[in-house]
Design a protein that fits this description.
By secondary structure, this protein is α+β, with helices and mostly antiparallel strands. It has 13 helices and 44 strands. It starts with a helix and ends in a 17-residue tail after the last helix. This is AsmA family protein.
């Protein structure tokens, strides 16, 4: 017994040791396998930290647990900025023995905590989830496709989020608080899959309209999975949307690589009106369970057909509500006599062939009836026949339907009919009247009520022609805390409207923005005006502004504005302006932006053409002055994302360049006494900026900084927003070398030799190139040329000169003094090319020229003509070898050729030639010319490659566009064929058998449970 117990203890210790050692035994192996599978099978960027991988056996025995934290999957190409999947924590259960054997690893379970999925389909139909390389494609490359096997029996998702966007439809879904669990034996080819899913908030949007908002979902689904046939059949299932339960029946199949087949029907599981009432926006609250409701509901539908590039499944929905009613227990009146009959049918699946028939809609809000009906056939063009009529006392409506914190009263009347075709050139015959009398709205969310709301108006079209639509709002009046606002409007001839309007009053922006909140923005202040306009838009489009009657005055006081992107805010203490047909005159505008002050005046013309006629420019001239302007308050540190001036949170770093508006033709004259920009203090800044055709042109812009005078002209061009360009001419006088090197990154990159120079210089230089996304010059794109006027310069303790002095044994070259020297230079493809220039140091003459790259690499040549007697014996021996002259000491002077390489901190100086002739200038000039020719050739090749790449990309885009166009043509053809079939069938049915009635909803089950 003692031996048995001892053996058992030994076995137990070994098991525990194995469990504890699992992370060390398998972690590297599993990580290597994962990296290999990702590289071979995934077309996306998969990001994770190897330190965030853990392996355990103790808590998951008998499976081996693999934990991965903060895994992110990012798409490629069009989706390179999209995160497809973010997994804060992924737990995978692996079959232990399959890991030990190492031939094929079986995945038995998957659990995700707080995952985020963002699924998108572009307008082209391309999805972002198509990232997996198929087994056949991998096998064709000779890759092993059997290393990982899905033998999943269970999976779990906790508190996830799913966002789905399909721009081809267009549909958006947002599911928050997703909890999902499922079971199924994926090791078998035929098995039952069961799952439970709950969603705390589901929002569904179609074509910009929310049809579901923050709905709750609970779904229990059982499916028969036939992996051999790729056929998935619904067995038992129940889905609950808020309190509305319904079920599915049928199957979904994947018969081939391009098609998905659907044959699905759905129906309501209960017939109480209260269940479908829970879907109405705003109704489903904590109090909903206490709502008294009655009436019956019938609801069913189908989704049947093939989905591929050309086809979508057909669908239909039937809904009937009979004698519905509901009453909140704490409100005195009820909504009753709710009767709805709706049929939606589209057997072909083509969106334009849909038919919607709401033959009946009626409800009584207390004693206030609301009636309507509508029949819609197609979408483009859309045939419409409908009417809505209501006369509602708003105070009584609130006695039926609760709106917390809202108080309303007044009589609201609407009676509108529409019949005919709606398209780009047609509209239904319309007769609509709307009226509000003694309206009053007060909410807990804003301080003052809107009172005395009175308006009446009509919209009439008797012919169905768009231009025969007449809008008449003869009176509009409201009071906001004692401030009246009145107006009127008449208009007709929609394509080129003839209008007559007037608005007069004062608006308190503080109160208005509390009534109508602006997300992320704060606005205060008061604006008053009296504006009148009458005329014909045809005159506006033709520029005949003299035929348009427009006049008015606008005044603003103490207006402030703050937002997330402008946290420092803008405050306008006062502003006054007038306008007429063609011109707005800003008489005065005074304010601050953060700590910066400004004042402005000027004129803006052609504002009517700019507002109402696409392609017409806004013209004008503005004069702006400021005593102190701090540009740093509008800049962001790229690391901390905080304001460079205050250190406080600032707008997020820009992901694109600043575009110049396309239809601006404006001139801005500015004069600023003091400007703070980055670490520079600028004074006496003045100049003109002209904006036209997406180009900002600088004219005579001058300022003082760093003890120097700066002048610039040039332009900034965003006509190609992907490659914004600039072209500047710089005129600088009396700038200190060290100040320039410390203040300007461009000088550090292009003129590294300036780091060892003391003195003053000026320049007249022109430079052009591209901006990057951070609004900084792309150094590799720079090109330019000009002069450097070295007024006075001392080169001290330079590693380059130290090596030259040591090599030539000429101590006077160790430190240089340069006076009144002009140097020619060019920037080519981001490289600085210095043309040869001469220096005289005592009886030594020196010529220098060459290039340096953005990487800081030097490639200069120097020629030094010196008395032979000054050179050391070692150098004389080398010169004898280079020149072939045995008695080198018998010569008067000699020219040395030097190559200077390396970088500014670690230069490499070599003696390359020697000559008895004074040919230094020629020697350096020839070498520099060769270097310049080579650099220009590299630039030409680079531009040619860029052009070829652009042409290739354009060809691919054109091909894709043509394929999409062909696809749309085929869709339209099939759509028209299906519509024709429906029309012929309807005609034959009418001729031989009478008109076929639309399918009615199934009869409501009145049996009580």
């Amino acid at each position: 017994m003692r031996k048995i117990l001892l053996g058992f203890l030994v076995f137990l210790v070994l098991v525990v040791a194995l469990l504890a050692a699992a992370p060390f035994l398998f972690k590297d192996k599993l990580r290597a396998l994962a990296d290999k599978q990702i590289a071979q099978r995934v077309r996306a960027k998969v990001q994770y930290n190897p330190d965030d991988i853990g392996v355990t056996l103790l808590s998951t025995f008998p499976d081996l647990g693999l934990d991965i934290k903060n895994l992110r999957v990012i798409g490629l190409d069009s989706f390179s900025r999209d995160t497809l999947v973010y997994l804060p924590q992924l737990r995978v259960g692996l079959d232990l023995m399959s890991v030990v054997r190492g031939q094929q690893i079986d995945i038995k379970s998957v659990a995700l905590d707080r995952p985020e999925f963002s699924v998108r389909v572009l307008k082209s139909g391309r999805p972002n989830w198509d990232i997996m390389i198929s087994d056949s494609a991998a096998a064709a490359k000779g890759q092993d496709t059997s290393q990982v096997n899905l033998a999943i029996r269970g999976w779990n998702i906790t508190d996830g989020r799913l966002r789905y966007e399909d721009l081809t439809i267009p549909v958006r879904l947002d599911a928050r608080g997703v909890n999902h669990s499922g079971k199924g034996d994926f090791a078998s080819n035929i098995f039952d899959l069961t799952s439970n899913t709950t969603i705390n908030k589901l929002t569904a949007n179609y074509a910009g309209i929310d049809y579901l908002t923050d709905k709750q979902v609970n779904a229990d689904i059982a499916m028969r999975m036939d992996l051999n046939k790729s056929l998935y059949t619904f067995k038992e299932n129940q889905v609950k949307l808020n309190d509305f339960p319904f079920s599915f029946a049928g199957a979904i199949g994947l018969p081939n690589a391009t098609d998905i087949t659907y044959d699905v029907t759905f129906k309501a599981l209960q017939t109480d009106f209260k269940n479908i009432l829970s879907l109405v926006p705003g109704v489903f609250t904590e109090k909903f369970k206490n709502v008294e409701a009655g009436g019956q509901v019938a609801f069913n539908g189908y989704y049947k057909g093939v989905q591929n590039k050309l086809h979508m499944p057909g669908y239909g929905v039937n809904l009937a509500v009979t004698n519905g009613r509901f009453k909140y227990p704490d409100l005195p009146q009820e909504a009753k006599n709710i009767n709805v009959k709706m049929v939606v049918d589209n057997p072909s699946g083509f969106t334009n062939n849909v038919k919607v028939n709401v033959s009946q809609f009626h409800l009584d809000l207390g004693t206030n009836p609301v009636d309507g009906n509508v029949a819609i056939d197609g979408l483009d063009p859309m045939k419409v026949d409908g009417r809505v009529k209501a006369n509602v006392n708003l105070a009584e409506a609130l006695k039926v339907y609760p709106v917390p914190g809202l108080n309303m009263r007044g009589q609201f009347f609407v009676d509108a009919t529409g019949k005919g075709t709606y398209s780009k050139t047609q509209m239904p015959v319309v007769n609509a009247a709307i009226k509000m009398t003694n309206g009053y709205v007060k909410s807990n969310k804003f301080p003052a009520p809107i009172e005395d709301i009175n308006l009446n108006g009509t919209v009439v079209n008797t012919t169905g022609q768009v231009n025969d639509t007449y809008v008449n709002l003869p009176q509009f009046h409201m009071m906001l805390e004692g401030e009246p606002l009145d107006g009127r409007l008449t208009a007709h001839n929609i394509n080129a409207p003839i209008f007559d309007a007037n608005v007069k009053g004062t608006v308190d922006l503080t109160k208005i923005t509390k009534i109508f909140p602006l997300d992320g923005m704060t606005v205060t202040g008061r604006v008053s005006g009296n504006v009148a306009a009458a005329g014909n838009m045809a005159d506006v489009e033709a520029g005949r502004y003299q035929n348009v009657k427009a006049s008015g005055t606008v005044q603003a006081k103490n207006v402030t504005y703050k937002s997330k992107d402008l946290p420092q805010g803008v405050a306008i203490s006062s502003a006054a302006g007038t306008f007429n047909n063609n011109q707005i005159t800003i008489q005065s505008l005074n304010g601050t932006a953060g700590s910066s002050d400004f004042a402005a005046n000027g004129t803006v013309s052609n504002y009517l053409g700019y507002l109402f006629t696409p392609g017409q420019p806004l013209r004008g001239t503005m004069n702006v002055t400021s005593h102190n302007f701090n540009v740093n308050e509008f800049m962001v540190d790229p690391v901390s994302e905080k304001s460079t001036a205050t250190g406080k949170a600032a707008p997020a770093k820009a992901t694109g360049v600043v575009p110049i508006p396309k239809f601006f033709d404006l001139v801005l004259n500015s004069k600023v006494d003091n400007v703070t920009y980055d670490n520079l203090k600028l004074t006496n800044a003045s100049g003109t900026v002209a904006v036209k055709n997406e180009v900002a042109s600088l004219k005579n812009l001058t300022f003082n900084t760093l003890g120097a005078t700066f002048g610039t002209t040039g332009s900034y061009n965003t006509q190609d927003l992907a490659h914004p360009k600039f072209d500047l001419g710089l005129n600088i006088k009396n700038l200190d070398f060290q100040n320039a090197f410390k203040a300007f990154n461009t000088v550090k990159a292009l003129v590294p030799l300036a780091s060892t120079v003391q003195g003053v210089f000026g320049t007249n230089f022109s430079v052009s190139g591209e901006m990057d996304e951070d609004m900084l010059p792309k150094l590799s794109s720079l090109s330019g040329k000009g002069l450097f006027d070295i007024v006075k310069a001392s080169v001290l303790q330079s590693p380059v000169l130290t090596q030259i002095s040591s090599l030539t044994t000429l101590p006077e070259l160790k430190n240089l003094q340069v006076l009144n020297k002009i140097v020619n230079a060019q920037i080519v493809n981001g490289n600085l090319v210095v043309q040869p220039f001469d220096l005289t140091i005592g009886d030594v003459k020196m010529t220098l020229g060459g290039t340096n790259s953005l990487a800081g690499l030097l490639s200069y040549v120097a020629a030094i003509n010196a008395p032979t007697g000054k050179l050391g014996n070692a150098l004389n021996s080398k010169l004898t070898q280079l020149t072939g002259v045995q008695n080198i000491q018998g010569t008067d002077r000699v020219t040395l050729g030097l190559n200077i390489g390396g970088n500014i901190a670690s230069p490499v100086v070599k003696l390359t030639s020697g000559s008895l002739k004074d040919q230094g200038k020629t020697l350096v000039t020839n070498v520099v010319k060769t270097k310049l020719t080579s650099t220009l050739l590299d630039l030409a090749n680079k531009n040619r490659a860029k052009t070829d790449s652009s042409q290739k990309a354009t060809a691919v885009t054109q091909q894709n566009a043509q394929e999409q166009l062909n696809l749309e043509i085929q869709k339209k053809k099939l759509e028209a064929q299906e519509k024709a079939k429906q029309a012929i069938g309807a005609g034959l049915n009418s001729l031989f058998g009478g008109r076929k009635k639309a399918a009615a909803p199934a009869a409501a089950d009145t049996t009580k449970k």
